[in-house]
């Protein structure tokens, strides 16, 4: 599958972010490859091929009721790239939006049907951690979702002991709000429940207790776009 829509590209001081199209085979492969070869967790998330990426998008992709300023975009993952003129993770040259260098991570916005608001997530290849790239990318993506698409309320979650990601959430502008549970599995498996994962919200939001997230792709869904 392919899409003819113009790509959304964001530029920060050091990075290029491009909104991936899950119905474009090359983009779907990049999303999948990052999980399989980068951040891991693809087995828990039920991601083994590009059809799984599309099922994930079908379940958790942008929904019109949250997009108050523009129609829902095709994708929900920003691929994080260094610019081609700065292919090492120690460089500080301004990003050149004309040429993408290596993909170093992703920033996602998930519109989970079990949750009252969409959530922002981020991950980097381990070799590029420690440079505040995740913070820089997540801030840019969050600003686009809010200022261009009109998402008003956003939360972020981390595993209970992921202090690194929790510090990133605070740098991005979230505040700690409470906890939720995470249940993996297709279908959801109570033996894979993680209790008391950390929840963060934007200032002024009120967290709701008792929420559970189900991040694993459910394979009984249709692939129709």
From TrEMBL:
UniProt entry keywords in alphabetical sequence: Acyltransferase, Transferase
Name of the protein in question: Acyl-CoA N-acyltransferase
Single GO MF annotation: acyltransferase activity, transferring groups other than amino-acyl groups
A Pfam family assignment: Acetyltransf_3
Cited InterPro entries: Acyl_CoA_acyltransferase, GNAT_dom, N-acetyltransferase
Domain N-acetyltransferase: from-to ranges: 98-175
